Amino acid sequence: MPGKSIDDLKKVVILHDLPEEVIRWIYERSEYDEIDDGVLFYRKDDPAEHLWFIPEGRFDFYMDINGQEVLYFNFQNNKFTGGVGGLLPYSRMKVSPGNAYTVGYTKMYRLHKKYFTELAKLSPELNNRLVSYMTERARAFATTKLQQEKVSALGKLAAGIAHEMNNPASAINRIADELKKRLKDNYFLTGKLMQFTRSPDLIRKINELVEEKENTAVEKLSLKEKMKREDEIENWFQKNIKAGDRIAGDTYADAGITVEDLSRIKQDVEDEEFIHILHWVENLLISKKILQDLHESSSRISSLVSAIKSHVHMDQTNKPALTDIHRDIENALTLMGYKLREKNITVNRVFADNLPEIPVYIEEMNQVWTNIIDNAIYAMSDGGKLNIETSSDGKNVCVKICDNGAGIPPEIQSRIFDPFFTTKKVGEGTGIGLDLVNRVIKNHNGDIRVFSQPGSTEFKICIPLTSVKEDED
Protein backbone atom coordinates (compact mmCIF):
# COMPACT_ATOMS: atom_id res chain seq x y z
CA MET A 1 0.00 0.00 0.00
CA PRO A 2 1.28 3.50 -0.76
CA GLY A 3 0.65 4.52 2.86
CA LYS A 4 -0.18 7.78 4.57
CA SER A 5 0.91 10.98 2.83
CA ILE A 6 0.23 14.64 3.47
CA ASP A 7 0.06 15.12 -0.28
CA ASP A 8 -3.21 13.12 -0.24
CA LEU A 9 -4.82 15.65 2.11
CA LYS A 10 -3.71 18.52 -0.08
CA LYS A 11 -5.81 16.98 -2.91
CA VAL A 12 -9.03 17.14 -0.87
CA VAL A 13 -11.27 19.87 -2.32
CA ILE A 14 -12.28 21.44 1.00
CA LEU A 15 -8.63 21.73 2.07
CA HIS A 16 -7.48 23.27 -1.18
CA ASP A 17 -5.61 26.59 -0.73
CA LEU A 18 -5.57 26.33 3.09
CA PRO A 19 -2.28 27.05 4.88
CA GLU A 20 0.23 24.21 5.11
CA GLU A 21 0.13 24.25 8.92
CA VAL A 22 -3.64 23.58 8.95
CA ILE A 23 -3.32 20.60 6.65
CA ARG A 24 -0.37 19.27 8.61
CA TRP A 25 -2.29 19.69 11.87
CA ILE A 26 -5.10 17.50 10.44
CA TYR A 27 -2.58 15.02 9.03
CA GLU A 28 -0.85 14.51 12.38
CA ARG A 29 -4.11 13.89 14.27
CA SER A 30 -5.94 11.72 11.70
CA GLU A 31 -6.22 7.97 11.44
CA TYR A 32 -5.52 6.62 7.95
CA ASP A 33 -7.39 3.82 6.11
CA GLU A 34 -7.12 2.23 2.70
CA ILE A 35 -10.27 0.28 1.80
CA ASP A 36 -10.98 -2.04 -1.11
CA ASP A 37 -13.99 -1.71 -3.41
CA GLY A 38 -17.40 -2.85 -2.13
CA VAL A 39 -16.60 -2.91 1.58
CA LEU A 40 -19.30 -2.12 4.17
CA PHE A 41 -17.22 0.43 6.00
CA TYR A 42 -19.82 2.19 8.14
CA ARG A 43 -22.88 0.41 9.54
CA LYS A 44 -26.23 1.69 10.68
CA ASP A 45 -26.16 2.64 14.38
CA ASP A 46 -22.35 2.74 14.49
CA PRO A 47 -21.21 5.68 16.69
CA ALA A 48 -20.75 8.89 14.70
CA GLU A 49 -17.43 10.21 16.02
CA HIS A 50 -15.18 11.03 13.06
CA LEU A 51 -14.90 13.57 10.28
CA TRP A 52 -13.82 11.91 7.04
CA PHE A 53 -11.42 13.37 4.47
CA ILE A 54 -11.54 11.38 1.20
CA PRO A 55 -8.74 12.17 -1.27
CA GLU A 56 -9.47 9.12 -3.43
CA GLY A 57 -12.42 6.78 -4.06
CA ARG A 58 -16.04 7.11 -2.97
CA PHE A 59 -18.51 6.13 -0.27
CA ASP A 60 -22.15 5.45 -1.20
CA PHE A 61 -24.50 5.97 1.71
CA TYR A 62 -27.71 3.89 1.96
CA MET A 63 -30.75 4.20 4.24
CA ASP A 64 -33.01 1.31 5.23
CA ILE A 65 -36.47 2.04 3.80
CA ASN A 66 -39.10 -0.64 4.35
CA GLY A 67 -36.43 -3.30 4.64
CA GLN A 68 -34.61 -2.23 1.49
CA GLU A 69 -31.43 -0.22 1.16
CA VAL A 70 -31.99 3.02 -0.75
CA LEU A 71 -29.10 5.16 -2.02
CA TYR A 72 -29.27 8.57 -0.38
CA PHE A 73 -25.91 10.23 -0.93
CA ASN A 74 -22.35 9.67 -2.05
CA PHE A 75 -19.18 11.16 -0.62
CA GLN A 76 -16.20 11.73 -2.87
CA ASN A 77 -13.55 14.30 -3.64
CA ASN A 78 -15.54 16.78 -5.76
CA LYS A 79 -17.02 20.24 -5.41
CA PHE A 80 -20.43 18.86 -4.40
CA THR A 81 -19.31 17.02 -1.27
CA GLY A 82 -15.89 18.62 -0.84
CA GLY A 83 -14.20 15.30 -0.19
CA VAL A 84 -15.60 15.21 3.38
CA GLY A 85 -18.14 13.03 5.12
CA GLY A 86 -19.05 11.39 8.41
CA LEU A 87 -19.63 13.65 11.42
CA LEU A 88 -19.29 17.35 10.67
CA PRO A 89 -18.86 20.12 13.28
CA TYR A 90 -22.13 21.24 14.95
CA SER A 91 -23.95 18.16 13.69
CA ARG A 92 -26.31 16.55 16.23
CA MET A 93 -25.81 13.10 14.74
CA LYS A 94 -24.97 10.51 17.40
CA VAL A 95 -25.05 7.30 15.37
CA SER A 96 -25.06 6.48 11.68
CA PRO A 97 -28.60 6.40 10.22
CA GLY A 98 -27.49 4.03 7.45
CA ASN A 99 -24.71 1.99 5.80
CA ALA A 100 -21.75 3.29 3.83
CA TYR A 101 -20.04 1.18 1.14
CA THR A 102 -16.82 1.92 -0.71
CA VAL A 103 -16.95 2.32 -4.47
CA GLY A 104 -13.55 1.62 -5.94
CA TYR A 105 -10.27 1.66 -4.02
CA THR A 106 -10.71 4.35 -1.37
CA LYS A 107 -8.39 6.34 0.88
CA MET A 108 -9.65 7.99 4.04
CA TYR A 109 -8.29 10.22 6.83
CA ARG A 110 -10.46 10.22 9.97
CA LEU A 111 -10.36 13.09 12.48
CA HIS A 112 -12.01 12.43 15.86
CA LYS A 113 -14.65 14.88 17.10
CA LYS A 114 -12.57 15.70 20.19
CA TYR A 115 -10.45 17.92 17.91
CA PHE A 116 -13.39 19.95 16.49
CA THR A 117 -13.16 22.85 18.94
CA GLU A 118 -9.43 23.19 18.44
CA LEU A 119 -9.85 22.97 14.67
CA ALA A 120 -12.41 25.78 14.69
CA LYS A 121 -9.93 28.01 16.49
CA LEU A 122 -7.03 26.98 14.27
CA SER A 123 -8.89 27.58 10.99
CA PRO A 124 -12.19 29.51 11.08
CA GLU A 125 -12.17 29.37 7.28
CA LEU A 126 -12.18 25.55 7.23
CA ASN A 127 -14.82 25.53 9.94
CA ASN A 128 -17.07 27.77 7.82
CA ARG A 129 -16.53 25.55 4.80
CA LEU A 130 -17.49 22.46 6.81
CA VAL A 131 -20.68 24.13 8.00
CA SER A 132 -21.50 25.09 4.42
CA TYR A 133 -21.05 21.52 3.22
CA MET A 134 -23.15 20.24 6.13
CA THR A 135 -25.97 22.56 5.03
CA GLU A 136 -25.78 21.33 1.45
CA ARG A 137 -25.70 17.74 2.63
CA ALA A 138 -28.80 18.33 4.79
CA ARG A 139 -30.61 19.78 1.76
CA ALA A 140 -29.67 16.79 -0.38
CA PHE A 141 -30.84 14.38 2.32
CA ALA A 142 -34.10 16.31 2.69
CA THR A 143 -34.73 16.19 -1.06
CA THR A 144 -34.13 12.44 -1.20
CA LYS A 145 -36.20 11.91 1.93
CA LEU A 146 -39.09 13.87 0.44
CA GLN A 147 -38.94 11.69 -2.65
CA GLN A 148 -39.07 8.60 -0.43
CA GLU A 149 -42.01 10.05 1.49
CA LYS A 150 -43.90 10.57 -1.74
CA VAL A 151 -43.08 7.03 -2.85
CA SER A 152 -44.23 5.71 0.53
CA ALA A 153 -47.45 7.73 0.36
CA LEU A 154 -48.01 6.54 -3.20
CA GLY A 155 -47.44 2.95 -2.06
CA LYS A 156 -50.06 3.28 0.67
CA LEU A 157 -52.47 4.86 -1.76
CA ALA A 158 -51.87 2.18 -4.39
CA ALA A 159 -52.35 -0.58 -1.82
CA GLY A 160 -55.60 0.98 -0.69
CA ILE A 161 -56.86 1.39 -4.23
CA ALA A 162 -55.95 -2.18 -5.16
CA HIS A 163 -57.76 -3.64 -2.16
CA GLU A 164 -60.78 -1.37 -2.50
CA MET A 165 -61.13 -1.90 -6.25
CA ASN A 166 -60.67 -5.65 -6.09
CA ASN A 167 -63.98 -6.54 -4.44
CA PRO A 168 -66.36 -4.54 -6.66
CA ALA A 169 -64.35 -5.41 -9.79
CA SER A 170 -64.50 -9.12 -8.97
CA ALA A 171 -68.19 -8.78 -8.17
CA ILE A 172 -68.87 -7.20 -11.56
CA ASN A 173 -67.16 -10.14 -13.29
CA ARG A 174 -69.28 -12.63 -11.34
CA ILE A 175 -72.42 -10.61 -11.96
CA ALA A 176 -71.77 -10.47 -15.69
CA ASP A 177 -71.48 -14.27 -15.87
CA GLU A 178 -74.61 -14.80 -13.77
CA LEU A 179 -76.61 -12.23 -15.73
CA LYS A 180 -75.77 -13.99 -19.01
CA LYS A 181 -77.12 -17.21 -17.51
CA ARG A 182 -80.29 -15.54 -16.25
CA LEU A 183 -81.01 -13.93 -19.62
CA LYS A 184 -80.64 -17.30 -21.28
CA ASP A 185 -82.99 -18.85 -18.69
CA ASN A 186 -85.47 -16.05 -19.33
CA TYR A 187 -85.89 -17.10 -22.99
CA PHE A 188 -86.50 -20.69 -21.92
CA LEU A 189 -88.95 -19.84 -19.11
CA THR A 190 -90.86 -17.34 -21.23
CA GLY A 191 -91.26 -20.02 -23.90
CA LYS A 192 -92.71 -22.37 -21.30
CA LEU A 193 -95.27 -19.75 -20.23
CA MET A 194 -96.35 -19.18 -23.83
CA GLN A 195 -97.61 -22.79 -23.96
CA PHE A 196 -100.52 -21.72 -21.77
CA THR A 197 -103.43 -19.48 -22.62
CA ARG A 198 -103.23 -16.69 -20.09
CA SER A 199 -104.81 -13.33 -19.63
CA PRO A 200 -102.47 -10.38 -20.20
CA ASP A 201 -103.85 -9.00 -16.94
CA LEU A 202 -102.10 -11.75 -15.00
CA ILE A 203 -98.67 -10.77 -16.31
CA ARG A 204 -99.50 -7.15 -15.59
CA LYS A 205 -100.49 -8.02 -12.01
CA ILE A 206 -97.29 -9.98 -11.48
CA ASN A 207 -95.14 -7.14 -12.85
CA GLU A 208 -97.00 -4.63 -10.70
CA LEU A 209 -96.47 -6.83 -7.65
CA VAL A 210 -92.73 -7.15 -8.28
CA GLU A 211 -92.35 -3.41 -8.96
CA GLU A 212 -94.39 -2.58 -5.87
CA LYS A 213 -92.09 -4.69 -3.71
CA GLU A 214 -89.04 -3.20 -5.43
CA ASN A 215 -90.15 0.38 -4.86
CA THR A 216 -91.26 -0.18 -1.27
CA ALA A 217 -88.60 0.01 1.41
CA VAL A 218 -88.51 -3.50 2.81
CA GLU A 219 -87.97 -3.54 6.55
CA LYS A 220 -84.60 -4.95 7.56
CA LEU A 221 -85.32 -8.22 9.28
CA SER A 222 -83.20 -9.90 11.88
CA LEU A 223 -81.70 -13.25 10.90
CA LYS A 224 -84.33 -15.01 13.02
CA GLU A 225 -87.19 -13.08 11.38
CA LYS A 226 -85.78 -13.70 7.91
CA MET A 227 -85.51 -17.44 8.52
CA LYS A 228 -89.10 -17.47 9.84
CA ARG A 229 -90.42 -15.76 6.70
CA GLU A 230 -88.48 -18.17 4.47
CA ASP A 231 -89.92 -21.12 6.39
CA GLU A 232 -93.45 -19.77 5.92
CA ILE A 233 -92.96 -19.57 2.15
CA GLU A 234 -91.27 -22.99 1.98
CA ASN A 235 -94.18 -24.54 3.91
CA TRP A 236 -96.66 -22.85 1.60
CA PHE A 237 -94.81 -24.23 -1.44
CA GLN A 238 -94.91 -27.74 0.00
CA LYS A 239 -98.70 -27.52 0.31
CA ASN A 240 -99.42 -25.85 -3.03
CA ILE A 241 -96.98 -27.24 -5.62
CA LYS A 242 -95.92 -30.74 -6.58
CA ALA A 243 -93.15 -32.38 -4.60
CA GLY A 244 -90.87 -32.65 -7.65
CA ASP A 245 -90.93 -28.90 -8.36
CA ARG A 246 -88.26 -27.16 -6.31
CA ILE A 247 -88.65 -23.42 -5.66
CA ALA A 248 -86.31 -21.53 -3.32
CA GLY A 249 -88.24 -19.58 -0.71
CA ASP A 250 -85.35 -17.25 0.14
CA THR A 251 -85.56 -15.45 -3.22
CA TYR A 252 -89.21 -14.56 -2.63
CA ALA A 253 -88.61 -13.66 1.02
CA ASP A 254 -85.71 -11.35 0.12
CA ALA A 255 -87.97 -9.56 -2.38
CA GLY A 256 -90.62 -9.00 0.29
CA ILE A 257 -93.22 -11.30 -1.32
CA THR A 258 -95.46 -13.03 1.21
CA VAL A 259 -97.63 -16.16 1.18
CA GLU A 260 -100.65 -13.86 0.77
CA ASP A 261 -99.14 -12.47 -2.47
CA LEU A 262 -98.52 -16.01 -3.75
CA SER A 263 -102.06 -17.05 -2.89
CA ARG A 264 -103.52 -14.18 -4.93
CA ILE A 265 -101.49 -15.25 -7.98
CA LYS A 266 -102.40 -18.91 -7.62
CA GLN A 267 -106.14 -18.35 -7.45
CA ASP A 268 -106.18 -17.11 -11.06
CA VAL A 269 -104.31 -20.04 -12.70
CA GLU A 270 -104.14 -23.82 -12.91
CA ASP A 271 -101.53 -25.79 -10.99
CA GLU A 272 -99.37 -26.61 -14.03
CA GLU A 273 -99.32 -23.02 -15.18
CA PHE A 274 -98.61 -21.79 -11.65
CA ILE A 275 -95.33 -23.68 -11.32
CA HIS A 276 -94.05 -22.12 -14.56
CA ILE A 277 -95.08 -18.70 -13.27
CA LEU A 278 -93.13 -19.32 -10.06
CA HIS A 279 -89.96 -20.25 -12.00
CA TRP A 280 -90.41 -17.25 -14.30
CA VAL A 281 -90.93 -14.84 -11.38
CA GLU A 282 -87.99 -16.37 -9.47
CA ASN A 283 -85.69 -15.75 -12.44
CA LEU A 284 -87.04 -12.22 -12.73
CA LEU A 285 -86.38 -11.50 -9.03
CA ILE A 286 -82.88 -12.91 -9.18
CA SER A 287 -82.13 -10.88 -12.34
CA LYS A 288 -83.30 -7.70 -10.61
CA LYS A 289 -81.15 -8.49 -7.58
CA ILE A 290 -78.15 -9.07 -9.85
CA LEU A 291 -78.72 -5.72 -11.53
CA GLN A 292 -78.94 -4.08 -8.12
CA ASP A 293 -75.63 -5.67 -7.11
CA LEU A 294 -74.14 -4.48 -10.40
CA HIS A 295 -75.31 -0.94 -9.69
CA GLU A 296 -73.85 -1.05 -6.16
CA SER A 297 -70.50 -2.39 -7.38
CA SER A 298 -70.19 0.15 -10.18
CA SER A 299 -71.23 2.93 -7.77
CA ARG A 300 -68.56 1.73 -5.36
CA ILE A 301 -65.91 2.01 -8.06
CA SER A 302 -67.22 5.43 -9.05
CA SER A 303 -67.03 6.67 -5.45
CA LEU A 304 -63.52 5.26 -5.10
CA VAL A 305 -62.38 7.07 -8.25
CA SER A 306 -63.91 10.26 -6.88
CA ALA A 307 -62.15 9.75 -3.53
CA ILE A 308 -58.83 9.06 -5.26
CA LYS A 309 -59.14 12.13 -7.45
CA SER A 310 -59.95 14.32 -4.47
CA HIS A 311 -57.29 12.73 -2.26
CA VAL A 312 -54.42 13.31 -4.67
CA HIS A 313 -55.89 16.70 -5.65
CA MET A 314 -55.81 15.93 -9.36
CA ASP A 315 -56.20 18.69 -11.94
CA GLN A 316 -55.19 21.32 -9.38
CA THR A 317 -52.09 23.46 -9.06
CA ASN A 318 -49.92 23.07 -5.99
CA LYS A 319 -51.24 26.19 -4.30
CA PRO A 320 -53.22 26.69 -1.10
CA ALA A 321 -56.93 26.18 -1.65
CA LEU A 322 -60.02 26.06 0.53
CA THR A 323 -61.00 22.52 1.43
CA ASP A 324 -63.63 20.65 3.39
CA ILE A 325 -61.75 18.76 6.12
CA HIS A 326 -64.65 16.35 6.65
CA ARG A 327 -64.61 15.33 2.99
CA ASP A 328 -60.83 14.89 3.00
CA ILE A 329 -60.92 12.70 6.11
CA GLU A 330 -63.75 10.61 4.63
CA ASN A 331 -61.70 10.12 1.46
CA ALA A 332 -58.74 8.92 3.53
CA LEU A 333 -61.03 6.52 5.42
CA THR A 334 -62.40 5.24 2.12
CA LEU A 335 -58.93 4.50 0.78
CA MET A 336 -57.93 2.85 4.07
CA GLY A 337 -61.21 0.95 4.22
CA TYR A 338 -59.70 -2.46 3.55
CA LYS A 339 -57.40 -2.13 6.58
CA LEU A 340 -60.30 -1.03 8.78
CA ARG A 341 -62.34 -4.03 7.66
CA GLU A 342 -59.44 -6.47 8.09
CA LYS A 343 -59.25 -5.55 11.78
CA ASN A 344 -62.99 -4.96 12.17
CA ILE A 345 -62.28 -1.45 13.43
CA THR A 346 -65.23 0.81 14.27
CA VAL A 347 -64.91 4.45 13.24
CA ASN A 348 -66.80 6.95 15.40
CA ARG A 349 -67.19 10.40 13.87
CA VAL A 350 -67.99 13.47 15.95
CA PHE A 351 -67.97 16.11 13.23
CA ALA A 352 -68.74 19.73 14.07
CA ASP A 353 -71.67 21.30 12.24
CA ASN A 354 -70.84 24.08 9.78
CA LEU A 355 -67.10 23.54 10.10
CA PRO A 356 -65.42 26.29 8.04
CA GLU A 357 -63.26 25.42 5.08
CA ILE A 358 -59.56 26.14 5.54
CA PRO A 359 -56.84 27.18 3.06
CA VAL A 360 -54.24 24.43 2.80
CA TYR A 361 -51.99 22.57 0.42
CA ILE A 362 -54.62 19.89 -0.06
CA GLU A 363 -52.36 17.07 -1.24
CA GLU A 364 -50.01 17.63 1.70
CA MET A 365 -52.83 17.65 4.25
CA ASN A 366 -54.31 14.49 2.75
CA GLN A 367 -50.98 12.78 3.48
CA VAL A 368 -51.36 13.91 7.09
CA TRP A 369 -54.77 12.23 7.49
CA THR A 370 -53.57 9.08 5.70
CA ASN A 371 -50.43 8.70 7.81
CA ILE A 372 -52.11 9.28 11.17
CA ILE A 373 -55.06 7.00 10.39
CA ASP A 374 -52.70 4.32 9.05
CA ASN A 375 -50.59 4.48 12.24
CA ALA A 376 -53.73 4.28 14.38
CA ILE A 377 -54.91 1.18 12.53
CA TYR A 378 -51.50 -0.42 12.95
CA ALA A 379 -51.56 0.28 16.71
CA MET A 380 -54.98 -1.29 17.31
CA SER A 381 -55.92 -4.91 17.78
CA ASP A 382 -58.89 -6.56 16.09
CA GLY A 383 -62.15 -4.88 17.02
CA GLY A 384 -60.47 -1.56 17.79
CA LYS A 385 -62.19 1.81 17.94
CA LEU A 386 -61.07 4.91 16.06
CA ASN A 387 -62.58 8.22 17.13
CA ILE A 388 -62.33 11.30 14.90
CA GLU A 389 -63.57 14.63 16.24
CA THR A 390 -63.54 18.07 14.62
CA SER A 391 -64.10 21.52 16.07
CA SER A 392 -63.40 25.21 15.49
CA ASP A 393 -62.76 28.05 17.92
CA GLY A 394 -63.13 30.77 15.30
CA LYS A 395 -59.39 31.00 14.73
CA ASN A 396 -58.44 27.39 14.07
CA VAL A 397 -59.94 24.16 12.82
CA CYS A 398 -58.93 21.28 15.08
CA VAL A 399 -59.02 17.54 14.42
CA LYS A 400 -58.59 14.88 17.09
CA ILE A 401 -57.78 11.34 15.95
CA CYS A 402 -57.81 8.86 18.83
CA ASP A 403 -57.25 5.11 18.86
CA ASN A 404 -57.55 2.56 21.65
CA GLY A 405 -54.29 0.80 20.85
CA ALA A 406 -51.48 -0.05 23.24
CA GLY A 407 -50.28 3.55 23.47
CA ILE A 408 -46.86 5.12 22.98
CA PRO A 409 -44.33 4.41 25.76
CA PRO A 410 -43.43 7.65 27.62
CA GLU A 411 -39.71 7.16 26.99
CA ILE A 412 -40.11 7.45 23.20
CA GLN A 413 -42.95 9.98 22.92
CA SER A 414 -40.46 12.82 22.42
CA ARG A 415 -38.90 10.99 19.45
CA ILE A 416 -41.93 10.03 17.37
CA PHE A 417 -41.54 13.03 15.05
CA ASP A 418 -37.81 12.43 14.52
CA PRO A 419 -36.79 11.49 10.96
CA PHE A 420 -36.46 7.74 10.42
CA PHE A 421 -37.66 6.86 13.93
CA THR A 422 -40.25 4.08 13.88
CA THR A 423 -41.67 1.52 16.29
CA LYS A 424 -42.95 -0.67 13.45
CA LYS A 425 -41.32 -3.91 12.44
CA VAL A 426 -38.68 -4.00 9.70
CA GLY A 427 -40.40 -3.69 6.35
CA GLU A 428 -43.56 -2.18 7.83
CA GLY A 429 -42.49 1.37 8.57
CA THR A 430 -40.07 3.94 7.18
CA GLY A 431 -39.94 6.34 10.10
CA ILE A 432 -40.76 9.20 7.75
CA GLY A 433 -44.55 9.30 8.15
CA LEU A 434 -44.82 11.37 11.35
CA ASP A 435 -41.80 13.46 10.39
CA LEU A 436 -43.69 14.35 7.21
CA VAL A 437 -46.87 15.02 9.22
CA ASN A 438 -45.01 17.36 11.57
CA ARG A 439 -43.37 19.32 8.74
CA VAL A 440 -46.65 19.67 6.83
CA ILE A 441 -48.44 21.00 9.93
CA LYS A 442 -45.62 23.47 10.63
CA ASN A 443 -45.70 24.54 6.98
CA HIS A 444 -49.37 25.47 7.56
CA ASN A 445 -48.47 27.44 10.72
CA GLY A 446 -50.41 24.84 12.64
CA ASP A 447 -49.84 22.80 15.75
CA ILE A 448 -49.78 19.06 16.44
CA ARG A 449 -49.79 17.46 19.87
CA VAL A 450 -49.82 13.89 21.09
CA PHE A 451 -51.45 12.57 24.25
CA SER A 452 -50.84 8.91 24.91
CA GLN A 453 -51.33 6.38 27.67
CA PRO A 454 -52.05 2.64 27.62
CA GLY A 455 -55.30 2.10 25.72
CA SER A 456 -55.53 5.62 24.27
CA THR A 457 -53.44 7.68 21.86
CA GLU A 458 -54.72 11.01 20.58
CA PHE A 459 -53.23 13.24 17.89
CA LYS A 460 -54.65 16.76 18.02
CA ILE A 461 -54.02 18.91 14.96
CA CYS A 462 -55.00 22.57 14.74
CA ILE A 463 -54.77 24.55 11.49
CA PRO A 464 -55.36 28.35 11.45
CA LEU A 465 -58.17 29.73 9.31
CA THR A 466 -55.78 32.34 7.89
CA SER A 467 -54.11 31.66 4.57
CA VAL A 468 -50.79 29.85 4.47
CA LYS A 469 -47.88 31.32 2.57
CA GLU A 470 -47.25 29.90 -0.87
CA ASP A 471 -43.89 28.28 -1.52
CA GLU A 472 -41.42 30.58 -3.24
CA ASP A 473 -39.98 29.37 -6.52
Summarize the structure.
With 473 residues, the chain is an alpha+beta fold.
List keywords for this structure.
48% helix, 473 residues, alpha+beta
Describe this structure in words.
With 473 residues, the chain is an alpha+beta fold. Helix content is 48%, strand content 20%. It is built from 13 helices and 13 strands. It has helices at 6-11, 20-29, 116-122, 124-193, 200-215, 223-240, 249-254, 259-266, 271-311, 325-335, 337-342, 362-379, 433-443; strands spanning 31-35, 40-42, 50-65, 68-76, 84-86, 98-112, 321-323, 346-350, 358-360, 385-392, 396-403, 447-453, 456-464. The strands form three sheets. Strands 1, 2, 3, 4, 5 and 6 form a six-stranded antiparallel beta sheet that branches. Helix 3 packs across helix 4 and helix 12 (362-379) runs antiparallel to helix 13. The longest helix is centred in the middle third of the chain and has 70 residues, at 124-193. It is elongated. Mean pLDDT is 81; it is low at 425-432.
Task: Output mean pLDDT.
Answer: 81
Low-confidence parts, pLDDT < 50 over ≥5 residues? 425-432
Question: In percent, how helical is the residue content?
Answer: 40-55%
Q: What's the main sheet like?
A: 6 strands, antiparallel
Oligomer: single chain
Q: Which structural class matches the secondary elements? A: alpha+beta
Cα shape: elongated
What is the H-and-E element order? HHEEEEEEHHHHHHHEHHEEHEEHEE
| Number of H/I helices | 13
Strand content: 15-25%
According to DSSP, the number of beta strands is 13
| Rg over CA atoms | 35 Å
Distance, first to last CA: 50 Å
